[in-house]
Amino acid sequence: MHGFGAETYLGLIALGIMVGAYGTLIGAGGGFVLMPILLLLYPHQKPEQLTSISLAVVFFNALSGSEAYAAMRRIDYRAGLLFAFAAIPGAVLGAIYTSAVPRHIFDIVLGFLLVAAAVFLTIQPRRVNPETYLSVHLHNMTTHHLTDIHGMRYDYSFNPWVGMALSTIVGYLSSFLGIGGGIIHVPALRFFLHFPVHIATATSHFILAIMALSGTVVHIIEGNFSQGVHRTVALSIGVVLGAQIGAHLSERIRGAWILRSLAVALGLVGIRILFKSF
User: Fold this and answer.
1) Stretch 114-141: mean pLDDT
2) Confidence category of residue 128, pLDDT binned at 50, 70, 90
3) Residue 157 burial by CB count (10 A; 0-12/13-18/19+): exposed, middle or buried?
4) Residue 136: is its pLDDT beyond 60?
5) pTM, 2 dp
6) Quick one: CA torsion of 10, 11, 13, 15, rounded to 10 degrees?
7) pLDDT beyond 90 at 86
């Protein structure tokens, strides 16, 4: 995989299509799938080099997916811009500090985060009571209304300050680990901010495009991107195509199955990385 022949390009494009389709389907941008694969394919490269590739690919995936979700009218632009603005400082800091962590520690942190997210998704849908959050934060709540292209109406209330705080943390983890942040943002939008699943996945993608771009720019300035241009181009071609597939599949799959799929994927990938690290 270290050469850049036609077979390597085709393999990376195929990988990009898979990552783009799945990442867009669940609103996670695909970075949580791509980054572990890059860690396995390139075991001797520094974390900052791989995160720069992953974040750049996540940007193109999120940009393509956002275009498809925009056509479906499922993006909450007001909330998305607010949360993206809050996420940018964290994304910049995360990109800067990636190089300070040894590769072995980086792998362990990423593995534990993925498993923790999987456990959260598995347990929380049964235990979270939205009325509890509503009663505690009622005085800070704002209500949004969206109607998608099919006439489905979505009404939901959330605390924008909680969303901004969560987005800052997500922005940092996104750039630091190169995973895009969607694996954290989708559950946060769904369970802490009460977004409907399909609005959460679409809005998360929109936020992700802005967040990943800011992190990628920092990596370019830091010089981490110089060795990953060829791989990024091939993977990006694939994710742009795959993102369109994933967005259209989301119309045919129930929200509960999207969350279950996300939990299973996170758990398997996290366990694989931890198994390799110990």
Assistant:
1) 62
2) very low
3) middle
4) no
5) 0.77
6) 160
7) yes
Which residue bears the tokens 């980086």? 106
Average of per-residue pLDDT across 1-6: 54
d(Cα 201, Cα 186) in Å, to the nearest integer? 6
* Average pLDDT for 124-133: 48
In three-state form (DSSP H/G/I as H, E/B as E, the rest C), the secondary structure along the chain is CCCCCHHHHHHHHHHHHHHHHHHHHHCCCCHHHHHHHHHHHCCCCCHHHHHHHHHHHHHHHHHHHHHHHHHHCCCCHHHHHHHHHHHHHHHHHHHHHHHHCCHHHHHHHHHHHHHHHHHHHHHHHHHCCHHHHHHHCHHHCEEEEEECCCCCEEEEEECHHHHHHHHHHHHHHHHHHCCCCHHHHHHHHHHHCCCCHHHHHHHHHHHHHHHHHHHHHHHHHHCCCCCCHHHHHHHHHHHHHHHHHHHHHCCCCCHHHHHHHHHHHHHHHHHHHHHHHC
Residue 7 pLDDT exceeds 90 = no
